[in-house]
Amino acid sequence: MTVLDAGELDLLADTLRKAMTTGSATELDAALGELGWAELLVEMPDVAVPLVFRLLGETGAHAAVLDDVVRHAAGRPGPQPIPLPFSGGTRVVWDRTAEPGVAVDEDLPLRIVDSGTELPDTALAAGRRALGWWLLGTGHAMLTLARRHALERKQFGRPIASFQAVRHRLAETLVALEGAEATLAHADTDLGALLAKAAAGRAALITARHCQQVLGGLGFTAEHTLHRHIRRTLVLDGLLGSTRELTHAAGTHIRTSASAPRLAHL
Length: 266
What we know:
- This protein is mainly alpha-helical.
- It has 10 helices and 5 strands; from the N terminus they run αααααβββαββαααα.
- The strands form 2 sheets. A 3-stranded antiparallel beta sheet has the order 1-2-3, with no helix packed on it. A two-stranded antiparallel sheet has the order 4-5.
């Protein structure tokens, strides 16, 4: 089994970040292949998945790695993408050979399909953990944009970061993201993965709302990158169960089993 020390992990993260910020999705897929993404996914998924997916969120890049994670966990090797459940009872495939479309997101090569087989619980859990890290990275990207704006934008002769209302929004955002990260760190079971994805989706949606308020009208403009992160959040939240759907599923599970399992030993 491959083991990377702290220095090697930092070097890998820097290389991945450069690949995600300088190339297209097709080029990123190729770069991930050269970096041994497939081998890392098999040998050390607990390191590779959080690293790659969080960086995707932070950089705003995208690649068909979610399909890789789900196919690996489901034991379905092969080049054909697997239909993924999407919010509202539809199914989509992440086709790495297709052009971005308008069916789900104009930036992502997602297309709606008519049917698909049910995924095993292990595959759903693996995909939800990966999406949770992606949502977390996206949330931190939005928070960085809002924080920078709050420090630079001045009203009444001082930065708006000094205003209590702005500081409360940014603080609530950070608390939500930190809580989601703690949940993801303990998502070792199927139920844990479900709750972690719901927590990350909720945190990202909270972040989108607060950061939009901090940025004001600037955040609505096509020139600013916030709206792309918000749109990405909405799409990722819908994949493999939305925050609302997963929360309802968790409540149903607890009600029918008449117990709430301990997910983390603190």
